[in-house]
Amino acid sequence: MDRSKNLRIDPNRLWDSLMEMAKIGPGIAGGSNRQTLTDEDAEGRALFQSWCEAAGMSMGVDTMGNMFATREGTDADALPVYVGSHLDTQPTGGKFDGVLGVLGGLEVVRTLNDLDVKTKHPIVVTNWTNEEGTRFAPAMLSSGVFAGKHTQDWAYARVDAEGKSFGDELKRIGWVGDEAVGARDMHAMFELHIEQGPILEAEGKEIGVVTHGQGLRWIECTVTGKESHTGSTPMSMRKNAGRGLALVTELVHEIAMKNQPNAVGAIGHIDVYPNSRNIIPGKVVFTVDMRTHLLDKLNAMVAEFEERAPKLCAEIGVEFECHIVGQFDPPAFDETCVAAVRDAAEELGYSHMDIVSGAGHDACWINDVAPTAMIMCPCVDGLSHNEAEEISKEWAQAGTDVLLHAVLNTAEIVE
Description:
The chain is of the alpha/beta class and about 425 residues long. It contains twelve helices and 16 strands. Helix content is about 35%, strand content about 25%. Helix 1 (about 10-20) packs across helix 12, helix 3 crosses helix 12 and helix 8 (about 240-255) runs antiparallel to helix 9. It starts with 10 loop residues before the first helix and ends with a strand.
């Protein structure tokens, strides 16, 4: 393994590849709009395939459109080490979210080719379909099918805002493969990703060693009051559903704050009825998003919310009801894979810290079927899912160098 200590990726080649991919589906403000199963997605896939084949890899595609580019190992019986993420973006997405993990994996293979380094285990670079869930909810759809969380028929039936189905659109762009989903066995998987949060940059760390993903609960709530005129209804006689929303908003914040660290909560989507300037809201429908990395803590947060929210609303004369519409238990990533990431960062001299992923990733599903870990690099101001998303070439290099060495430690160099 002494030979591997001096191995580094080519940061200029990686950066050039990132910028070249960003030309496909350019956003209107410097980012990317390469939504899943669009013509732009198809074009990005074709470019990725051409680069993989130029690097001597063979491409496999399953019936969910997941792409698997394989660099052979020396042992035909050894299970592959997988690396990768996703190429699809938000409608107003950045150039690095997901893409860094895919093209960083490609750069690992290119580097091994340059230096004629062979591994016992094959290495597979993966592009998971529809990680973002922008057109077809939920997010991480295809890795979810791979891991047995969803059926393929259910996934194929997902529709976008225009009523187009996932299955029809996958067929239309020509990326329905012939492999059965989930048929591949894995020795391990590593996913490199930008942090999508501000912690690493604020702490001055180059590498985040991801130990856990956050679990989440999406709780859809309805507060019901009574519509009435804002000018002529006395304050003491109002049943203001909007006031109920305000009280519940503060409750969510309070619960999250007292469960620190690594607990968050907020209200995102809100519909107010009748949504008129001079009518007191008679109904508000909204979704609470609660997340933390410990299952017991997450369940306790939800239980407290479900107990206290109805009481707060009853005190002001409005009704409250809620139900869970989305949930994801927090994954704890494989200790051996996490150690491989931490050891690689230390060996290479990169500053690092343990971190919990605040967002969902394909690795969170794959963790249920194979040993998995994630590597994170900083992003400027923690900004992501935004065309202004930015990282430095140095951060990209650090993350991909760590990916390279974690993979080599796991795939086993053949001297």
